[in-house]
Structures are given as C-alpha cells and as structure tokens.
Write a structure and sequence with these properties.
The structure is a homodimer of 143-residue chains. By secondary structure, chain A is an alpha+beta fold. Chain A has 5 helices and 6 strands, in the order ααβααββββαβ. In chain A, the strands form 2 sheets. Chain A has a 3-stranded antiparallel beta sheet. In chain A, a hairpin with a 2-residue loop joins β2 and β3. The radius of gyration of chain A is 17 Å and the shape is globular. The mean pLDDT of chain A is 90. The interface between A and B is medium-sized, with 31 and 31 residues. The structure holds a DNA duplex (30 and 30 nucleotides).
DNA sequence: ATTGAAATTGATAAGCCGTCTCAAGAACAG
DNA sequence: CTGTTCTTGAGACGGCTTATCAATTTCAAT
C-alpha cells in the first residue's frame, strides 16, 4: 500500500501514455523521493542503498528525469549541484538564498506568479514552469 | 582607451579590494565579454583566440568567475551549457525560454522586482541579485 | 629603473557529474 | 505461457570545469 496514491497515479498515467513500464525500482524511488522537499541524485542513492543495495546510480538519474517529464519533479541547479524538487507534494515554491551562510528560505507569492503570466502572455508564451531565486544576505549575515 | 570605462572601474575596484592584479588578459577578456549580452566560456575562447592565440581556456573560466564575483557577470545554466550574462551593460533582465525550440526572450518588469524586494524584506533578506526564468512554449511552438 | 614578493598564466592533467552501452532480467499483452 | 519490448545494473565514456605547477608578469617598495 503506497502512502502517496495521488502521485503514484500521476506516474502510472505517464508510464501508460509513453509505453513505459511500472517497475519495482520506480515505485521505490518515487516513495523515497516524495519524502523530501528536494534532494540530489547522490543523496537519494545513499538513502536507497540501505533499502536495496543493488540499485544503480544510473537508475536514480534515469528515474528522476522521468519524474521531471511526468511533472512530479523539477531539476534545479544550485551552484555546482543539481537538486530535484518535489513539486507535487506542495505547490510550487521559490527560493531566497543567503550568499554568505548558504541558508535557504522557501516562499510562494501569488502576485509574482500572476505578473509572470502577464509578461509571458504579452510575449506570446505559455508558461509551464518557472524558477525564481533571490540571492542576498540574511538578517544574521548582514552584520 | 577602453570603450567601457565604467565596467573597467568596477573590475579595478574589485581587484584592488582583493589583492588581485590588473593583467592584459583580464582587460582583453572584459572588453570582449562586454560586447555581448550573454556568452559561454567556449564561445568567448574562440572569439579571443583570433586576438590572442595563446590565451588559455582555463584563464577564460577563471576570469569569468572573477567577473561574477565582481558583479559584472552572472552564470546561468541552461540545459547542459553555462551562459555568462553581462549584467552591467544594461539593467538586469530575466528570461523567457521556449522549452521546444530553445528561443530566449529577455524582459524586465519593475513590478516583479518590487514584489521580490517585499518578499525578501519580510524574510529579513537584503537582495543582491536574482534570477528569474520562465519556461514554456513560444507562440510558434504551441501549435 | 630595479628588485623581489605575490599573483597570474598557459598547458595539461585530473575530477565530477551525468549519460550511454549492452547483456541479462523483468513486465505485460496476447 | 510466451514473445516482445522495456528496464536494469555495472561500468565505460564524455563534456565541462577546476586543480596543478613551473614560468611569467604585476606592482609596491626601494
């Protein structure tokens, strides 16, 4: 019994539409992926190696890319590392990043999202996703 | 006589503050970098190899990173490649990116910027830079 | 101008991250 | 069940970026 029936359905739907198969690995990776807000392929690999020591890193990468295509995840580059965001669990969120201590605050702002839609529309675009990152100093590091 | 006295000053100021030196290569790379809106390290390398065939690729990378630290450039990852944006020449701008054909439209929106400031302030942050990318389909690719 | 300490450069080696390859195994329609 | 097709795991591979290091250049102090 999965704890994430909704996301599981999204995955199965995507698999069905693209002649892909439902595998034990994909189910396992999804289950662990959904436990976090965002994670790197490497971290997920380590978490899962306890559960299934034979799971390959390549499979993690392949599956995370699959999740991106299915709309369950979104890749995000933070400096040198690539984070895969869980976008299905809660709504899309953006990031405030302290360039000094590395602290990350997540936020959501409907007004900004609405303005983004307006900008896109006036340029003939239809937005699928977006990425907004604000870099600066947090209150602690400003001093 | 440089054609970019203002940016040159920003660079010299940064160099002075960090015990770094003003070199022929840094001047040359800055001059070419400022000619474009955004460019990859590889492209810049090719452009410059005509002017100075002995300039190394590593120096290009080092110098572009230096420009980022000085606030003259900003690195942006688009798919597999890294673009270095010229952020000093004109005001900061954001990007609309077509996920189908790769078309990039630049835009600027004061209202969004103002809201960003508000979000940052309410979280105790002071913004230095930001990055906003909207991904979707352009009018041509929507059909 | 000369000198000398410190930073920079160029060439290349090395590293990292993610993808590709391919034989063996698993899924699923008929 | 059976056959076809997709997936997996392991490691090789590839592109992009950084590290290494001896030779060179910068620049402040003579």
């Amino acid at each position: 019994m999965s704890k994430h029936p909704k996301e599981m359905d999204v995955l199965k739907d995507h698999l069905g539409k693209h002649q892909l198969k439902y595998t034990r690995q994909r189910e396992l990776i999804l289950e662990f992926f959904l436990k976090q807000e965002h994670i790197t392929a490497e971290e997920l690999y380590h978490q899962l190696s306890r559960k299934d020591p034979h799971l390959g890193l390549a499979t993690i990468y392949r599956t995370l890319n699959l999740f991106c295509e299915a709309g369950l995840a979104q890749a995000r580059h933070f400096g040198t590392q690539t984070q895969y965001d869980n976008v299905s669990h809660k709504g899309h969120h953006d990031h405030l990043i302290c360039t000094d201590c590395g602290k990350i605050v997540e936020f959501e702002n409907c007004d900004i999202e609405r303005l983004q839609e307006e900008v896109a529309a006036s340029n003939g675009f239809t937005i699928k996703t977006h990425r907004l990152e604000l870099y600066g100093l947090c209150s602690r590091c400003r001093h």
